[in-house]
Each structure stands twice: as structure tokens, then as C-alpha cells.
Amino acid sequence: MAHPIWVAVTGDEMRAMDSSAVGNEADARLLIEAVKSKSAIQSALDSRLLVPSSERLTLIPHKEFCNDIPVIDISGLLDDGRRGETIAAVVNAAANWGIFQVVNHGIPDLVLENLMTVVKDFFSMPEEEKQLIAKDHENGRLQGYVPFSQLFQKQAAWSNQIEYILQPHHLVGPEDTWPARPAGFRQAIEEYCNEFHSVLAKILELLLSSCLKTSGTRKSSELLDGNQLQVFRASYYDTCPQPEMVMGLRSHVDSSLITAIVQDDTGGLQVEKDGQWYGVAPTPGAVVILLGSVLQVLTNDMLKAVEHRVVVNGESRRMSVTTGINPSSNTIVAPAQELIDELHPPHYLPCEYKEFRITNFEAGVLNSLDALDQYRIKDQVPSLHHRTLFPEDIEEHNPTFYHVGDGRLLDLQSFIREGIVAS
Ligand SMILES: O=C(O)CCC(=O)C(=O)O
Ligand SMILES: [Fe+2]
Question: Residue ranges per domain, the chain?
Fold first, then answer.
């Protein structure tokens, strides 16, 4: 192979690769050779970096933005005269798009600027220095830098990341898991994430109030009791000589209640709605809010988690910061009881959040069904003369037993085995 793929592949060749099942070894070798010449990857062939041809057909340029994705001035939440209309705007955006941007959120510009500056400075450091705090699961280092090679092997993403748990306290890693440079990195991250946590909590509370009518406040304080998992991730998407071949981040839903993203002005974040992809316009001072899959389960599909992805490009690198609020690891993720009655059966099986999160993570790695699909009750088969699952049948704090029509109490496995719930 004489030439790198970046210049060698013509439109016809690309189509030929498509038709010969992208991902075969020869295609992968071409790409890997090219990737190797650009980065420090030493690993063997791995075709997972290639975007499948079906997905490639949906790609839209990183600078193509959709002006209909709502941008909401949430200072109205603090103003009696505008509160009602602001709440309506947030709820409508959540219901219609599952994503919106907020401005006038009360986080000073300086906090956002510091945040993006330390992230940029971190990613600009030499690779060897970043590697000093690389994640290393085998050695118990679960937080830190995620180099290209790690993501390459797992999620087929054209990006580098750095990620930490900020809450609950007992899961926060020791100081030496954080980078020593740039100075002020940790403080800038924590300042933004702590301040923005209260904005996210407010949005979550009003979404729950709107769906559950009376008990949104109670539900959100139950979820945000200090043990909730708050995570931080900064992502760096390098320029890519052949951006249509790879994805900065493959399409996914976050396994969060709600996620916030600060993005620089490059563009590349895209969301799916009704089978179409739309670019989220970088907006100065704005924070992007996304609904996660836990909120979808909790609201029994009244609100939907939004599928999103990141595309890369050949001209500008991109950086973003994500922070999400998730339940605590032993919270039972299940549709809220307030939403369930004989006419509205639950759409999801209950499970502990830690299991839910792992399922979602594995789905990303294995490219299989995400947690929503795995726990969805697919067929509540009344024809089997069984009752469908009702929340009063779920023992509080131990939601592993289900009453069925003939009065028996079954554990989850038997319940599934009997075909009441398609597994
Ligand atoms: O980089 C972005 O804008 C999105 C990142 C993202 O979706 C994630 O970290 O889950
Ligand atoms: Fe995401």
C-alpha cells in the first residue's frame, strides 16, 4: 500500500468499500495505516473505528446547524412575570426535542471561560504528560485521561477524553488522579460543575413537576440526596483528514437523568429527531441540556432521551465539557408510581442504577441494545391471561417480585421465563 488512505480514496473507491461491507480487514488496514501515521496508535487492526456505511449516509457537515433547537433564557424562572412562560418553554423543548440550550443561567462568563481554558491547556500538553494520569482499569485507576488508543479499542471514537466523578464524596478519586498541570485545572472544573449542578437540579425539578404533577419537588430531592453520581468529562476531537470515515463520538443516549454540555465554537454535536439528524449551533454563553435515559424511564416515556453524536472535520479541532446528574448507584430506576395505573402500565423493568449504567456502557462497547431497550417491557401480553406489571406489585426497595394473574409471586427470572415480559 503506497499511499495513505487520506489521499488515495476516491468517491468511487469509497462506494466500493461501502458495498463490500465496510469493516472488512482490507478496509480497516488502509484506515489503520493512515491513523498510525497520524497518531501514536500501535495496536493491531480494528475496524470499529470505521463508521458503518448506513450511518455514514446520515452524516451532515459539522457546520450545518438547526435553528429550531430552542435557546431558552432561563433567567425568566426567577421572575414572577415570566416564570410561567419560561417553564412552558423548557417543558415544551424537553418534550419536543429532548435537547435545548439555556442562556442567562447565572453562571458567570468568567467561570465558563476558565473552564474552556484549562481544558484546552490540558489537551495541548504533550501526550506523555497526559498519559501520567491515564485511566488504567487493571490497576484500579478508574478516573483520569482516556487516550485515543483506549477509546479506539472500546468505542471507536475519534477523540480523547478526561473524566472524573465529582459526587458522591466517597467516589471522588485522590488528588494524584488529577493532572498537576495546567494550574487550576481541578478548581476550574469543580467551580463550573458545582455551580451548574444547581441549574440542572432546577431544570430536573420542573420537568418532574410537570410530568408527575404534584410530586416533582419530592422526587427530585429524593434523587438528589447528596449520593447522586455527578460526572465530568472533557472531550477533545482532533481534526481528521477523512472525517466521513470516523465519528468523534458514536450515536448514543446518556445514561443520566440530565446532562449539560458546554461546547466551543467549532460545531459537531448533532441530535436525532424523527429519523433526521440536526446540528446544535454553538451559541456564546449557552449550555446545552440533554435528557438522559433515566429520565425517560422515570417518566415512563413521557420525556424521551435524545440520541446524539459528534462528527469531526478536517479544519478545526473541537472541545466540549459534559457534566451529568445521575441517580446514586443503588437507586432503583423505574417508572414513577404516580404515572402508573391500570391504563398506563410501566414500560420498563426496574433495576438498580449501577446495573443500568453498566448495561448502557456495554451497549456502547458492544454496539448492542442500550439500557432503555434492555429493560423495556416489550410485550405485556394480555393474551397470556397474565396481569401486566403494576407498581403496587413491586415491593418497595426490593423490586424483584411480581404478582401474576393467578396470584403467584414470581421473581424476575421466572417472570421473564414465563414469557410475561419479553426478555
Ligand atoms: O462532545 C460533545 O458535545 C458530546 C459529548 C457526549 O455526548 C458525552 O460525553 O456523552
Ligand atoms: Fe453523550
Answer: 1-49, 51-328, 332-423
164: left (phi over 0), alpha (psi -120 to 50) or beta: beta
User: pLDDT, tens digit, for every residue of 393-422?
Assistant: 333 323 344 444 445 555 444 544 444 332
What DSSP character marks residue 405?
A: T
Question: Which of 193, 235, 306, 309 has most ligand 1 atoms within 8 Å of its beta carbon, as the pocket-test mutant?
Answer: 235
Ligand 1 lined by 250 (C-beta under 6 Å): no
- Looking from the CA of residue 161, the nearest atom of ligand 1 is 9
**CATH homologous superfamily of 51-328:** B-lactam Antibiotic, Isopenicillin N Synthase; Chain (2.60.120.330)
Whole-structure pTM value:
0.80
pLDDT at 152: 46
ipTM of the complex: 0.99
Distance 246 CA to ligand 1 centre (A): 15
- Which residue in the block uniquely carries the three cell numbers 464524596? 169
Using the mean position of ligand 1's atoms as its centre, give its distance from the Cα of residue 121 in Å.
19
Give the helix/strand (H/E) hosting 59.
Answer: none
